[in-house]
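Whiteboard transcription, Tuesday session. T.W. wrote the C-alpha cells on the left side:
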C-alpha cells in the first residue's frame, strides 16, 4: 500500500515537472521603486564612460536582447556570450547562462562591474549619482539613500514588470482552444513526444534546470564555436518564451535561425534527427510563445 502512494506521488511530481504554466498578468511591485529602476535601467551614466546602459544590450522593443551573437560593452569590448532576454527573467531559477547569480539583485551587480560591459565600480558610481537628480529620488524611497544594494534593488523591482503574459500559447493553456493553430497544436505534441519538454518546462519553458550542450551526441570542438570550456559547462536551459524574437541562438549566438537551432538541439540533446515538417511545426509552436510587453497590454 505505501508503495502505491509513493508511485502516485512520483507520477504527480513528474507530471508537474513536465507542465508549462502561463505567465501571470502582473507581479506585486513597489511602484516608486519600479519607476526608479526604469530610469536606472535606461541610464548610460551607470557605465564608466556614460556610453552603455542595461537597455543597450537588452532592447525592450526587440525581444529583450540585442540580436547580436555576442554583446558589445564599454570601449567597444566584446564578450563571449549571447545576451539573453530580460523578459520574464524574474521567473528564472538562477540568472546568467551558468546560473552563477541566485536572483535579479545579485545579477544586476554583474554588468555594472564587468570590465567589458559597463566597467564601473560602486564607489565611483554612487559619488557620480549623488551629484544628480537621483539623490532626491533615492532619499524619498530609501532611508539610507544611494547605496549599492538600493541601486540593484530598484533595478530588480523594475525587472519584475518586464514580463510577457497573454501569448497565444498561454491563452490556449487557459482554455481558449482556438488561440493557437492546428499546426501549432501538432508542434506542441511533437515537442512533448520527442522529449523537448523534459528540459524546457515550467513557467519559462526552461530556466529551471542545468544541462550541458551535447547530452546524447557531443558536438565536436569548433563546431558551433564550441570550446573545451563550453564542453564542460553546465548551462541553464534557456527559456523558450519569446524565442522567435531573440535570434541568434545558443550561449554564443552561433546559430542564426530558429529552424537550424531546433534541428541541431534535437540531434545533440535527444539524439533525434527531426524531419523538415516536424521542425516546421515545432517552430510554429515556438512562435506561439511570443507574449505581450506592458505597452502592448494597455
Ligand atoms: C554589454 C552588454 C550588456 C549590458 C550592458 C547588460 N547586460 Fe545583461 N546580459 C548580457 C549578457 C551577455 C548576459 C549573459 C552573461 C552570462 O551569462 O554570463 C546578460 C545576462 C543578463 C540577465 C540574466 C538573464 C538570464 O536568462 O540568465 C539579466 C536579468 C540581465 N542581463 C539584466 C541586465 C541589467 C539589469 C543590466 C544593467 C545593470 C544589464 N543586464 C546590462 C549583456 C549585457
Ligand atoms: C537535455 C536537455 C534539453 C533537451 C531535451 C532540449 N533542450 Fe533545448 N536547450 C537545452 C540547452 C542546455 C540549451 C542551450 C545550449 C547552448 O546555448 O549551448 C538549449 C537551447 C535551445 C534553444 C535555443 C534558445 C536560445 O535562446 O538560444 C531552442 C530554440 C531549444 N533549445 C529548443 C529545443 C527543442 C525544440 C527541443 C526538442 C527537439 C529541445 N530544445 C530539447 C537543453 C535541452
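and on the right, the sequence the group agreed on:
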Amino acid at each position: 500500500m505505501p508503495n502505491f502512494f509513493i508511485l502516485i506521488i512520483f507520477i504527480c511530481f513528474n507530471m508537474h515537472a513536465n507542465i508549462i504554466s502561463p505567465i501571470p498578468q502582473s507581479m506585486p511591485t513597489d511602484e516608486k521603486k519600479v519607476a526608479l529602476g526604469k530610469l536606472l535601467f535606461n541610464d548610460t551614466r551607470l557605465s564608466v564612460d556614460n556610453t552603455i546602459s542595461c537597455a543597450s544590450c537588452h532592447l525592450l522593443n526587440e525581444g529583450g536582447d540585442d540580436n547580436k551573437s555576442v554583446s558589445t560593452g564599454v570601449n567597444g569590448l566584446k564578450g563571449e556570450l549571447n545576451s539573453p532576454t530580460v523578459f520574464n527573467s524574474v521567473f528564472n531559477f538562477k540568472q546568467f547562462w551558468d546560473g552563477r547569480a541566485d536572483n535579479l539583485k545579485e545579477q544586476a551587480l554583474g554588468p555594472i562591474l564587468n570590465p567589458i560591459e559597463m566597467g564601473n565600480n560602486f564607489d565611483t558610481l554612487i559619488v557620480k549619482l549623488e551629484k544628480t537628480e537621483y539623490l532626491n529620488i533615492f532619499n524619498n524611497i530609501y532611508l539610507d539613500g544611494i547605496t549599492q544594494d538600493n541601486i540593484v534593488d530598484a533595478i530588480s523591482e523594475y525587472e519584475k514588470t518586464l514580463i510577457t503574459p497573454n501569448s497565444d500559447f498561454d491563452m490556449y493553456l487557459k482554455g481558449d482552444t482556438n488561440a493557437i493553430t492546428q499546426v501549432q497544436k501538432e508542434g506542441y505534441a511533437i515537442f512533448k513526444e520527442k522529449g523537448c519538454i523534459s528540459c524546457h518546462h515550467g513557467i519559462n519553458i526552461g530556466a529551471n534546470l542545468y544541462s550541458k550542450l551535447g547530452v546524447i551526441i557531443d558536438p565536436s570542438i569548433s563546431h558551433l564555436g564550441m570550446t573545451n570550456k563550453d564542453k564542460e559547462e553546465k548551462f541553464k536551459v534557456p527559456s523558450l518564451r519569446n524565442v522567435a524574437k531573440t535570434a541568434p541562438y545558443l550561449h554564443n549566438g552561433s546559430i542564426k535561425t530558429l529552424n537550424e537551432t531546433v534541428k541541431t538541439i534535437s540531434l545533440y540533446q535527444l539524439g533525434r534527427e527531426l524531419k523538415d515538417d516536424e521542425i516546421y511545426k515545432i517552430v510554429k509552436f515556438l512562435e506561439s510563445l511570443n507574449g505581450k510587453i506592458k505597452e502592448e497590454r494597455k
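Someone added at the bottom: The mean pLDDT is 93.
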